[in-house]
Automatic annotation (TrEMBL):
Keywords: Hydrolase, Signal. It comes from Desulfuromusa kysingii. Residues 1-25 form the signal peptide. Its EC number is 3.5.1.28. InterPro entries: AMIN_dom, MurNAc-LAA_cat, N-acetylmuramoyl_amidase_3, TPR-like_helical_dom_sf. It comes from the Bacteria. This is N-acetylmuramoyl-L-alanine amidase.
C-alpha cells in the first residue's frame, strides 16, 4: 500500500512538472502589473500581440477564478485593455468590444464603485470613437438611472445635456390589448438583430437574453408589414431602432419599446411572402425566415472590395473585413447557374499568430505547416484549374475562427478549404482524414472538433445544440461529396509515394471554422503532427507539394461531378 501511494505521488509530481506555467492560476496583482507596464511602453503598444496576450490572461483569470475578490477590478482592467487596444489599432471592432466589456463589468457588479466609470467610458467610446451619439446617449442615461450615487453621474448628465436626444420612430401598426399586466422589472431583453440573405429566403435572427412569448401579426396589402410583439420584453440600450435591408424582399426591420408590456419588431416588406418562426435556446433566439428570392441586391461574382483581392494580394482579408459595415450585413450567396463551375477558392491556413495549434515532438508548430501547405495548394490550384485563389492569411497572423468563413462569404467563394495537422496524446496515431460540417457522429470526431475549436467536449455538445439555425446556409451534401473526393485523392496520391499512410476516412463534426460558410467547405487533417514520422513529412516541402497536388485532384474530380449533375 505504501509503495502504491508513493508511486501515485511521484506520478502526480511528474505531471505537474510538465504542465506549462500558465496552467496555474493567475494573480490579479501580477496582471495589474503587466497592464501598467503595457500602458507605460509605447513600443509594446505598437504590437497587437502584446495586447492579445494580456487580454487572454485576463480571460483565464475571469474563467478560472469566478469568486476572486478582485474579479470586478479584473473585469474593469480587461475592458480598459480593449479600450487601449482600440486607440492603438483605430479599429471599430476593437472599440465595440471595449464597450461590450465595460457593459459586462457594469452588469455583473452594478453596485461596484467602478460600474459607473465603466458605463461612462463606454459612452465616451461610442461618442468619440464610433461617432454614435444615440448609443452614447443611451449609455449615459443608463448610468444616471441605474447608478444615481455614482461619482460619474454629473459628467454623464453634462453629456446628456449636450447630445441630441435620439428619435425613436413609433411604428404605425394596429394596437392590441393584453389583459396580463405582469411587471417587466426583470424582463427579457432584445439584445441584437442580425440578418442574412440567401437565394430562397432572408433570415432575421432576434438575439434574446431569455425566453419570450412572441405574438405574430401580418398586415397584408399595398405596403405589407409583418410584426411581432415580444411580451414582457425590453430593448437593450443602444440597439438600432431601424436596420435597413433593401434586398427587394424586406425593406427594413424596426424595433422599439411599444409600451410598458412589450417590444415590437416590425418587418417592412416589399411584397407579401410566406414566413416561418422558430424558437431556439442556448442561446435564446427567435429565427424568422421570409420566403422568396431577393431581387434588389447585387448577387454578382464581384463583391465590394473584390477588385483589390487579386491573386497577388492573398492577405486581403484585413481590408475586406475592416471595410465592412459596422452593423450586421447580409451575406449575399452568389447566384450561380449550374455550368459556372468553380471560379474562386478560399484556402484557410489553420491557426496562426498567438495560436500555434498543435506542437510536434520536435517543436514543429501546426500554424507554420498549414501556412506552407496553403501556399503550395494555392499555387497548384491556379496552375491546374485556372481558378482564382485567396488565402485567409499569407503570414503568421491571428484570425478568429468566424472571420475565416466570414471572409469567404464576403468575397463570394465557391469552395472553402481549411488546412490542419492532427494530434493525439499518445503520439502513435498517423494518417489523413477529411471533415465536413455536421453533428459529430462519434467521440473521436468530437475530440478533434474540440481541439481545433479550442474548446472542451462539453462546449462541443453545446455547439451542436445551436447548429440548427446555421445549417440552412451550410452546403452539407455538397461538402460531403467534396470531402469524399479530396480524401480519396489524398490517400491514392500519398500512398503512391509514401509508406504507411493510414486512411481515417471522411468524418463530420461541429467545427467553428466551418460554421456559417455558404459554400461547400471541408477541413483537412493532412497528418498527425504528434507522430514523429508524420511530423517529418509535414515539414517537408515535397510532402506539402504532394498534399497540394492530391487536394487539387480531389477538387478537380468534385468539379467534374458538378458538371455531370448539371448536364443530366
Amino acid at each position: 500500500m505504501k509503495f502504491k501511494t508513493c508511486f501515485l505521488l511521484i506520478l502526480l509530481f511528474s505531471v505537474l512538472a510538465t504542465l506549462p506555467c500558465n496552467t496555474f492560476a493567475e494573480s490579479y496583482s501580477g496582471l495589474r502589473q503587466e497592464y501598467q507596464q503595457l500602458m507605460k511602453s509605447s513600443q509594446l503598444q505598437r504590437q497587437r500581440a502584446n495586447w492579445d496576450k494580456l487580454i487572454a490572461r485576463f480571460d483565464r483569470f475571469v474563467v478560472q477564478q469566478p469568486q476572486n475578490k478582485d474579479l470586478e477590478r479584473a473585469l474593469f482592467l480587461k475592458a480598459r485593455l480593449w479600450d487601449g487596444l482600440s486607440s492603438a489599432s483605430g479599429s471599430g471592432r476593437d472599440a465595440r468590444e471595449a464597450i461590450d466589456q465595460y457593459q459586462v463589468m457594469a452588469k455583473r457588479f452594478p453596485r461596484s464603485r467602478l460600474a459607473d466609470d465603466a458605463l461612462f467610458l463606454a459612452g465616451q467610446i461610442a461618442e468619440n470613437k464610433l461617432n454614435d451619439q444615440a448609443f452614447a446617449y443611451g449609455l449615459y442615461q443608463q448610468l444616471v438611472a441605474q447608478m444615481p450615487a455614482g461619482d460619474m453621474v454629473a459628467e454623464a448628465k453634462k453629456r446628456i445635456a449636450v447630445l441630441p436626444a435620439p428619435k425613436v420612430p413609433r411604428p404605425v401598426v394596429a394596437e392590441q390589448d393584453y389583459a396580463d399586466d405582469r411587471s417587466v422589472g426583470d424582463a427579457p431583453r432584445l439584445v441584437k438583430i442580425r440578418y442574412w440573405s440567401g437565394p430562397q429566403y432572408t433570415r432575421i435572427v432576434l438575439d434574446l437574453s431569455a425566453p419570450v412569448v412572441a405574438k405574430p401579426n401580418y398586415l397584408k396589402g399595398e405596403n405589407p408589414r409583418l410584426y411581432f410583439d415580444l411580451l414582457y420584453t425590453k430593448v437593450v440600450s443602444g440597439l438600432p431602432s431601424t436596420i435597413a435591408i433593401g434586398n427587394g424582399l424586406i425593406r427594413q426591420v424596426r424595433a422599439s419599446q411599444f409600451d410598458g408590456q412589450r417590444t415590437r419588431v416590425v418587418l417592412d416588406l416589399n411584397r407579401v411572402a410566406d414566413y416561418e418562426l422558430t424558437t431556439l435556446e442556448n442561446p435564446h433566439r427567435l429565427v424568422i425566415d421570409i420566403k422568396g428570392q431577393p431581387t434588389g441586391v447585387a448577387l454578382s461574382r464581384q463583391p465590394p472590395g473584390a477588385q483589390v483581392a487579386s491573386a497577388a494580394a492573398d492577405d486581403s482579408i484585413a481590408s475586406i473585413l475592416n471595410s465592412s459595415s459596422d452593423r450586421q450585413v447580409a451575406v449575399h450567396i452568389p447566384h450561380k447557374e449550374h455550368d459556372e463551375g468553380i471560379r474562386l477558392v478560399v484556402i484557410d491556413a489553420g491557426h496562426g499568430g498567438r495560436d500555434p495549434g498543435a506542437i510536434g515532438p520536435n517543436k514543429t508548430y501546426e500554424k507554420n505547416v498549414t501556412l506552407a501547405m496553403a501556399k503550395a495548394l494555392a499555387k497548384k490550384l491556379r496552375q491546374e484549374l485556372g481558378v482564382k485563389v485567396l488565402l485567409t492569411r499569407s503570414d503568421d497572423r491571428y484570425l478568429k475562427l468566424r472571420e475565416r468563413t466570414e471572409y469567404a462569404n464576403q468575397v463570394g467563394a465557391d469552395l472553402f478549404i481549411s488546412l490542419h495537422a492532427n494530434a493525439t496524446a499518445n503520439g502513435k496515431a498517423s494518417g489523413v482524414e477529411t471533415y465536413f460540417l455536421n453533428l459529430s457522429k462519434n467521440n473521436q470526431a468530437a475530440e478533434v472538433a474540440a481541439r481545433e475549436n479550442g474548446t472542451t467536449l462539453q462546449e462541443v455538445g453545446n455547439l451542436e445544440a445551436i447548429l440548427f439555425d446555421l445549417m440552412a446556409n451550410a452546403k452539407i451534401n455538397e461538402s460531403s461529396r467534396l470531402a469524399a473526393e479530396v480524401q480519396q485523392s489524398l490517400i491514392s496520391g500519398l500512398r503512391s509515394r509514401y509508406s504507411r499512410v493510414n486512411d481515417h476516412g471522411v468524418k463530420q463534426g461541429p467545427f467553428h471554422v466551418l460554421l456559417g460558410a455558404t459554400m461547400p467547405s471541408v477541413l483537412i487533417e493532412a497528418g498527425f503532427i504528434s507522430n514523429s514520422r508524420d511530423e517529418k513529412r509535414l515539414i517537408s516541402s515535397n510532402y506539402q507539394k504532394h498534399v497540394a497536388a492530391a487536394i487539387t485532384a480531389g477538387v478537380k474530380n468534385y468539379s467534374s461531378t458538378i458538371d455531370q449533375v448539371a448536364k443530366r
